[in-house]
């Protein structure tokens, strides 16, 4: 039994280490190629060549470029997000919107979002937005827990998330702070008047 | 001279006819492949094969898949748009929003928008939205000409265009008529209260 465990463990460590390195190299290559605006170069052979691994390794692990990009986006967009918690809805939404605007202003992130949506379709798009939507739900729920009546998630998505993604992905207009702040103001003005 | 004109004319007719046929076949092939969700198959050799033309023809005419998709999107999104003109801003915006929602609900259009943005980047995205923005500008200008004070183009884009594109491109939520109408209502409610 001890031998089995040991050999299992060593087997697990070696491929694990190599596997993690391959993953990092392939993710890095996909990010680089997307950032170079070379969406046409986002093929498994090209990505594998850039990563210095055999195409078969990439095919076996991810299957398609769409799956690979969804995986890259998932690790890019998950985990590093902190939900603002100032105790005030307006301030939380301001921080949230400014953080998302900063993220979407980064050319590498934007290139990744465009490529993931373009090649990964609806599934890819879901990966790019779901964590951001979860954050928004958490902010609104906290405000409700404080006894307030915040706007609903649909209205908040339409008023803040949608214009930020639309402007970033579809236009070359800057996501300037005054405009970003104005989105929050407009949403909360509606709220007060209704 | 007569001979020259005649031969020019016959030369112009033949390549013109062939050229139009090639364009239609290549556009059709790109649309089909995008609609099949096969963004990875959107390469010039694959498109050329589907269209039954030589890859060199496609390379020579469009250069890149990005350019080709921008051309396909331009002919898809231009020309067939009528600016609603009911004499009333609310009714015009309702018709506009319902028309855009219908367009973005079509799976082929949506696949084309995603592929054009994903592969064509900012330039591709501009092609997918510019005609729609022009329509909106025309609607607002007409209302101003009637002596009213309509919302600005930025606010209208944020309130109507952005949520429609965001929901269509990034989510799988339906663009249902009540929601679409609500976008217009919210924009104009802001307007009245400000």
Automatic annotation (TrEMBL), chains A, B:
Keywords: DNA-binding, Transcription, Transcription regulation. GO terms for molecular function: DNA binding. The keyword Transmembrane helix does not apply. Residues 20-80 form the HTH tetR-type domain. Signal peptide: none annotated. Residues 43-62 bind DNA. It holds the Pfam family TetR_N. InterPro entries: Homeodomain-like_sf (IPR009057), HTH_TetR (IPR001647), Tet_transcr_reg_TetR-rel_C_sf (IPR036271), TetR_C (IPR011075). SUPFAM superfamilies: Homeodomain-like, Tetracyclin repressor-like, C-terminal domain. It comes from the Bacteria. This is TetR family transcriptional regulator. It comes from Promicromonospora citrea. The lineage of its organism: Bacteria, Bacillati, Actinomycetota, Actinomycetes, Micrococcales.
